[in-house]
């Protein structure tokens, strides 16, 4: 048998105990935010029929073309690990009748899978927090979706490091008329375009606008502009959204090249980007997708949503030092137990403390160990104080520099702890 140790799959990260508190910190903020806006959580499987993603995200998108983890299961069905949440959310909501003539404000959080080249801020298993709001066509829901993302940045102390870019894709008719015009313009320069863009000319011409190639970007400088193809009504709605954002004090930059990689968007699209993370600059992206529910077999249902890359938010929090020092501190009391015969007594005392003071976090030393080595562990745990149980005596020692010890009987301990941890 091979002795080589098995390693995790490339691009799929373990989250170790030193880091889980950071995740919990972000997750708690997200849960509080969603409660404050009265959105409801939805959970759906990580595996779906491959067809779901092909039909929604689009055959000619990066995700479906080259990033999905797709395989046949034992029945020969083609399944894919979810590369994003919107398609699954629509599938689940539609399947369970949540969308017919109803308004829904939903959110989800969890792992997504894309076979990309792993690098900082880009992984093969990564996590998204996303929201999807169904049944509302007004600009106010678009504004709310953006306002709530801005509120999260404020709460996390990231407000000044993120900027909002926004664009209007118009109706799907506007979008396809523009696509035609862009295609005929680009066909004249076909040989000079990068390889990906040449392929996208037929399949997904708007994506050419996203090209990273300098030559292609140069050609795009004189290309038709999306704005010129947008009808008056759609433009007026977009202006209304912008005026709400301005009134709310949200700064934005209009970017007529912003089209987003997924096929299902129409109307407004937006991205929050940062200069703190190098090439992986987009932290949160979303927009309106009024056609998707119908495309997946439901009725006409206006919809708006976004997805946020949680690893990228965490990288920002960590690199900018925005995680409060108390996060990760998870022990209040260390229970040192000297002498084997005292072990059960120590455990029971810890139980007693936990039921009298349920908010306190009590870490017990289990097993043998000299006083000094247990004290060392107590310091390393970050506890505020240590209780030392030795023979009939219980000493309480504060773990600050002077560490003075009080000798207590078991009756006195609870009231003493109450005064320490007010
Ligand atoms: P990018 O241009 O960075 O590839 P995308 O357009 O593919 O992003 P979306 O599908 O819009 O991304 O996903 C929403 C967010 O999820 C992104 O803005 C990003 O923060 C995050 N994200 C996407 N792919 C990854 C990944 N492979 N690893 C980590 N985060 C990711
Ligand atoms: Mg991508």
Task: Describe the overall structure.
The chain has helices spanning 20-36, 50-57, 62-67, 86-95, 139-156, 172-187, 195-203, 214-220, 232-247, 292-295, 310-319, 343-356, 371-381, 410-420; strands at 40-41, 47-49, 70-72, 78-81, 104-113, 125-134, 162-168, 252-254, 266-274, 282-288, 303-309, 333-338, 362-364, 385-390, 393-398, 405-408. It is of the alpha+beta class and 422 residues long. It has three domains: 19-170 and 231-320, Bira Bifunctional Protein, Domain 2 (BirA Bifunctional Protein, domain 2); 174-229, no CATH class; 330-421, Rossmann fold. The strands form three sheets. It has an eight-stranded mixed beta sheet. Strands 13-12-14-15-16 form a five-stranded mixed beta sheet, with helices on both faces. Strand 15 and strand 16 (405-408) form a beta hairpin. Helix 1 runs antiparallel to helix 5 and helix 5 (139-156) runs parallel beside helix 9 (232-247). The longest helix is centred in the middle third of the chain and has 18 residues, at 139-156. The radius of gyration is 28 Å and the shape is elongated. It starts with 19 loop residues before the first helix and ends with a helix. Adenosine-5'-triphosphate binds at residues 84, 114, 116, 121-123, 126, 128, 261, 280, 282-285, 307, 309, 311-312.
């Amino acid at each position: 048998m091979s002795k080589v140790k098995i390693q995790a799959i490339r691009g799929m990260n373990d989250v170790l105990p030193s880091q889980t508190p950071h995740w919990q910190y972000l997750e708690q903020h997200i849960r509080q935010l969603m409660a404050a806006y009265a959105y409801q959580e939805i959970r759906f499987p990580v595996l779906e029929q491959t067809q779901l993603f092909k039909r929604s995200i689009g055959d000619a998108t990066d995700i479906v073309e080259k990033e999905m983890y797709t395989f046949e299961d034992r029945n020969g069905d083609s399944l894919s690990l979810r590369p994003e949440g919107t398609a699954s959310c629509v599938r689940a909501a539609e399947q369970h009748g949540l969308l017919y003539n109803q308004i829904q404000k939903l959110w989800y959080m969890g792992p997504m899978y894309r076979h990309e080249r792993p690098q900082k801020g880009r992984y093969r298993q990564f996590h998204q927090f996303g929201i999807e709001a169904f049944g509302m066509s007004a600009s106010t829901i678009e504004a709310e979706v953006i306002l709530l993302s801005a509120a999260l940045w404020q709460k996390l102390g990231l407000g000044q490091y993120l900027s909002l870019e926004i664009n209007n894709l118009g109706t799907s008719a506007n979008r396809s008329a523009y696509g035609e015009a862009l295609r005929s313009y680009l066909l004249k320069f076909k040989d000079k375009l990068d390889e990906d863009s040449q392929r996208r000319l037929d399949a997904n011409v708007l994506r050419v606008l996203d090209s990273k190639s300098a030559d292609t970007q140069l050609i795009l400088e004189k290309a038709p502009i999306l704005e010129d193809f947008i009808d008056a009504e759609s433009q007026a709605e977009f202006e209304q959204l912008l005026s709400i954002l301005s009134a709310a004090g949200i700064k934005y930059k209009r970017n007529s090249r912003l089209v987003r990689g997924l096929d299902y968007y129409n109307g407004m699209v937006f991205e929050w980007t940062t200069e703190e993370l190098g090439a992986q600059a987009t932290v949160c992206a979303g927009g309106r997708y009024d056609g998707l529910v119908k495309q997946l077999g439901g009725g006409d249902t206006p919809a708006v949503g976004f997805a946020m890359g949680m690893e990228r938010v965490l990288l920002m929090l960590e690199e900018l030092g925005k995680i409060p020092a108390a996060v990760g501190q998870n022990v209040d009391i260390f229970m040192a137990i000297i002498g084997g015969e005292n072990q059960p007594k120590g455990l029971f005392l810890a139980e007693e403390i936990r039921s009298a003071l349920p908010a306190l976090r009590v870490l017990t030393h289990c097993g043998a160990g000299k006083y000094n080595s247990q004290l060392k562990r107590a310091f390393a745990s970050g506890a505020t104080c240590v209780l030392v149980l030795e023979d009939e005596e219980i000493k309480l020692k504060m773990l600050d520099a002077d560490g003075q010890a009080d000798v207590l009987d078991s009756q006195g301990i609870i009231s003493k702890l109450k005064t320490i941890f007010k």
